[in-house]
């Protein structure tokens, strides 16, 4: 089961036939397992990773450290839910350490992200403070190296 999930996480475009060969399992069993994983929300979504810079699309991403006052009986969950409902928000994580929530936000420019923080995020009841960190360059995302330059680092050897 975990082996199948690992393979799907790395490349969801593989066919059940390919997966059955790799895992030495019947195609029908692979198909049934995938359907079960989808219906039980074990597989939440299939996602394509795009290098937006190469596509010529400008995007700005910020990771925002958010300190909050948890609400009685619901803790951090109610505030996190209010935050993750915004379309600009790409991810929200409850953290241990010096801040409570890590919020990744995407916009078309710095001003758009700054406006989101100042007019939407910081005004939520329970948000005590925010610290915004803008991503300058993406090297690896979701386990995938972006724009791998390994071949360029090799020394030219001539006789």
Topology:
Elements: H1 2-10, H2 16-23, H3 27-39, E1 60-68, H4 77-84, E2 89-94, E3 101-107, H5 110-121, E4 127-134, E5 140-141, E6 144-145
Antiparallel strand pairs: 1-3, 1-4, 2-3, 5-6
Helix pairs in contact: 2-3
Short descriptors:
single chain, 159 residues, Alpha-Beta Plaits, 5 helices
Major β-sheet annotation:
4 strands, antiparallel
Along the chain, the helix and strand elements come as HHHEHEEHEEE
Share of residues in helices: 25-40%
Cα(first) to Cα(last) distance is: 51 Å
Q: Radius of gyration, rounded?
A: 21 Å
Numbering strands along the chain, what is their spatial order in the largest sheet?
2-3-1-4
Mean pLDDT: 92
CATH class category of the largest domain: Alpha Beta
Question: Given the structure, what is the number of helices?
Answer: 5
- Bulk shape: extended
CATH topology label of the largest domain: Alpha-Beta Plaits
* SSE class: alpha+beta
Proportion in β-strands: 15-25%
CATH architectural designation of the largest domain: 2-Layer Sandwich
- What is the number of E strands? 6
Poorly predicted residue ranges: none
The number of domains is: 2
CATH superfamily (homologous) name of the largest domain: Lrp/AsnC effector binding domain/regulation of amino acid metabolism (RAM) domain
